[in-house]
Design brief:
about 450 residues; alpha/beta; binds zinc ion
């Protein structure tokens, strides 16, 4: 016993000595023009990082002993935030993933996707279904390289809904590959929503994802589907609220969007039927929208998974006609809109799609709004996971201000004048393979740690 106590005392002393020595590292970034996540003007100044936080923003900062990084007059901005990715879904089709993916295939894909996102400048990713908390644990422990990760765990989807990955012949109630891995769960009652919603938080979810509409390339669901009763959606909101968090809902049709908002859903995903009436309700409820703008690209009808499947092509055509008003409505009645790519597929294909989604944002809404979407709005969205469920509760994300997390990019030139410098790509299906990291993104810092520096 005495030996044990002595050993413990030594350990405590050693820990104390270590704590004294390890003052937070200080990095002073000088000579940069700062986009703070919100303002449409760049500010000339310096940024002091202490440990994993931004300690000061301004001029003539006293930072004796700090490592100095000369930004050379380039632009410094917050790390980007992806609000709707599926890091664990390798594609190419839903049945293929359900039938032929083992957990190793999925985990390896997730690790590679995580690294791709970080090296494209995304320091935070919200996962919109499929990933549990394990990926975040591996990233945050430094075992693999990737962005901060907000998982939704299993999609919650009704029988035949948009996340019903089961085979055509699968009987009701039979467990699927994806249900066994807690990547998608069938919920057909309030009790199911409660059971699987709570299990999701237990598995490391930071918010819940409810599939409230159908889709275009999925097998059983018309895109116009209004899935989930008001009671079932309210049950998801209630479970999320137990954890101080919120629900994101995959909603296409106006009825679906309204049902979601009225039940207390805070994040409308896709929201293609968005109009000014919806905008009014969203503002009243403090809700956000994230939309994959590739849905408005004429090239959508040329995707092999759409073009070669008559049922999908018909669905895509009718959806495109209904969604035609989105861009104009968003300009007329703007609401808080987060960046989303929603790529399911190979790492190389998703790299291209992410770059193209950046480009479409700029094309439809201009550089300033696109940068706000990519940074501060995304930070507000992920913070809705709440004080005790948010894995990163210490500081703000998506802004350059004192006290915020030190998630920082330095890019060549001025993205408000030339949006290509943030790694936007002008082509989708006929694009060349993209570099591992855009040349114009010179520095990538996450949580105070530098992952790329080519200055
Ligand atoms: Zn999605």
């Amino acid at each position: 016993m005495k030996i044990l106590l002595t050993t413990l005392a030594c350990l405590l002393m050693a820990a104390g000595a270590f704590a004294q020595e390890a003052a937070p590292t200080r990095v002073l970034i000088t000579n940069v023009k700062i986009f703070d996540g919100k303002n449409d003007k760049l500010i000339n100044g310096d940024v002091l990082v202490e440990g994993n936080l931004i300690a000061k923003v301004g001029r003539n900062i006293d930072a004796s002993g700090a490592t100095v990084v000369d930004g050379g007059g380039r632009t410094l901005l917050p790390g980007f935030i992806e609000n709707h990715a599926h890091l664990m879904l390798p594609g190419p089709t839903l049945p293929a993933m359900e039938a032929n993916s083992t957990w190793e295939d999925l985990a390896i894909h997730g690790a590679k996707m995580a690294e791709m996102y970080l090296m494209q400048g995304f320091t935070t990713v919200r996962d919109a279904g499929g990933a549990n908390g394990g990926l975040r644990r591996a990233i945050d422990a430094g075992t693999i390289t990737g962005p901060r990760h907000y998982a939704s765990a299993a999609f919650l989807s009704t029988r035949g809904g948009h996340a019903d990955f089961a085979n055509y012949t699968a009987p009701v109630g039979q467990s699927s590959n994806f249900s066994r891995l807690n990547m998608a769960q069938e919920v057909d009652s309030v009790a199911d929503v409660q059971k699987f919603g709570r299990n999701n938080f237990r598995m490391g979810a930071t918010q819940l994802k409810f599939m409230q509409s159908g889709g275009v390339v999925s097998a059983f669901d018309p895109w116009q589907l209004v899935a989930g009763s008001p009671e079932e959606i309210a049950a998801a909101v209630q479970v999320a609220n137990e954890y101080g968090s919120y629900v994101m809902a995959h909603s296409y049709r106006k009825e679906a969007i309204m049902n979601a908002l009225n039940a207390g859903v805070k994040s409308i995903e896709h929201g293609f039927s968005f109009d000014c009436e919806i905008a009014k309700v969203m503002k009243k409820k403090g809700a956000y929208i994230t939309t994959n703008l590739t849905a408005f690209d004429p090239g959508l009808l040329d995707i092999p998974a759409v073009k070669n499947v008559p049922a999908s092509l018909a669905k895509a055509k009718s959806a495109s006609a209904t969604f035609a008003g989105y861009i104009d409505n968003m300009k007329k009645c703007p609401v808080k809109r987060g960046f989303q790519t929603d790529c399911v597929g190979s790492v190389e294909a998703c790299n291209i799609q992410v770059a193209y989604e950046k480009h479409l944002n700029n094309q439809f809404f201009g550089p300033h709004q696109s940068l706000v979407t990519l940074t501060s709005t995304g930070g507000e969205i992920v913070a809705m996971s709440g004080d005790f469920t948010n894995p990163y509760p210490e500081a703000k994300l998506g802004v350059i201000e004192e006290g915020a997390y030190a998630d920082i990019l330095i890019v060549d030139g001025n993205p408000l004048e030339d949006f290509s410098v943030v790694g936007a790509g002008t082509k989708w299906f006929d694009a060349e393979p993209r570099p591992e990291s855009p040349e114009t993104i010179r520095v990538i810092m996450k949580d105070g740690k530098i992952y790329k520096n080519t200055l």
